[in-house]
Amino acid sequence: MPNCSPRLPVSLIIPCAGDFRDLSRLLAAVESGTCWPEEVLVVDAAQKLNGRVPCAQPFASLVRVIEVLTPLLPGAARNIGYQAASFSWLAFLDLNTLPSTHWLEAIYASVQQHNGAVFSLGATLYSGNTWQQRLFITATYGERPLPTLPGSLVHIKVFHLLGGFLPSVRAGEDTDWMVRVNQFGIQHTPWVPAPLSYFAVPASLPQLARKWFRNYRSCAPVVFHLEAHKTVYVLAANFFIVFVAFNWNSLVADWRESSVFYIANITKIMLAFSVLFYMCIRGLIMPLRRGSNLKKVIPVRWIAIGLVCAVLDISKLFAFVLPPWRNRSGNVFT
User: Fold this and answer.
1) 242-262 pLDDT, tens per residue?
2) How far apart are CA 74 and CA 275, in angstroms?
3) What is the rounded distance in angstroms from the CA atom of residue 177 to the CA atom of residue 296?
4) Helix%, strand%, coil% for the chain, nearest 5
5) What is the pTM of this model?
6) Which CATH class is domain 7-201?
7) CA-CA distance, 138 to 125, in Å (whole number)?
8) CA 297, CA 292: separation in Å to the nearest integer?
9) Domain ranges within the chain, ordered by starting residue
10) Could you say which of 49, 115, 252, 312 is the most buried, measured as most Cβ atoms within 10 Å of its Cβ?
11) What is the per-residue pLDDT across 216-245, written as a single tens digit (0 to 9) for each?
């Protein structure tokens, strides 16, 4: 029989909507950790497990599969998990994330060392195997760990105060919940250097664009309202620039080429300026702010990054403009 790791008084919650192999890989990573949680709650949100536990004893004795009768989105699955937890400290993982061996030990030690802390924020580092995936990561998530709900440790009293996750959106419910944590001034520990690894970055640009469209269309009405406002402002500013470019010479210079205000080819100049400005911001400045090395984005890679961002921004625009999908009860879903 394999040796058992020390146990911590933690309920680990895993919403499961993927296949058996994904869950098996995740549980194997948790089992190889320096510490184990006292229980692992797997919420079968897609009815794919049939009560099966894809790991061996003695770790399998800690795993409890919670079967649900209808498919659930991640927020609803997590709500069921924390309500069924036997311990006050709750940890969260997703199927597409893998923890390091010392992850649980590190975040638990962090909250114990900071008196009064009830929340230890997790972090995720996105990784890819192909050059396309690495390009997408540079264009979107960035190359340093990002704060995420997966990897976090939360005391149950935080849920008593804030409530649970939005149950009817596919993505963004964790961001919404963490915004509430900040708004309520919940005391949390500094970031713990034990990030998870995320390995499910789409392999092609059409797949990535579909994911962006699906997620933003699902959550835009209830989570990303400020993002929608920013999109409107950017569109309004671009419309104003185009309007000025098309009408400058007629309104200001009365089409007199001798006028000091007359600008030849102003439409082409303004269009080129707008495109170059966008590409510099999205393809160069933002990747650098997200942790990319300057040598990785120049001399030409920044152009590819900017083009990827343009496709994703168009996908987001359509997601904001089109009405969200709804089920018969009127709840937003996708």
Assistant:
1) 777 777 767 777 777 777 777
2) 38
3) 34
4) 45, 15, 35
5) 0.83
6) alpha beta
7) 12
8) 8
9) 7-201, 225-321
10) 312
11) 887 766 665 555 555 665 666 667 777 777
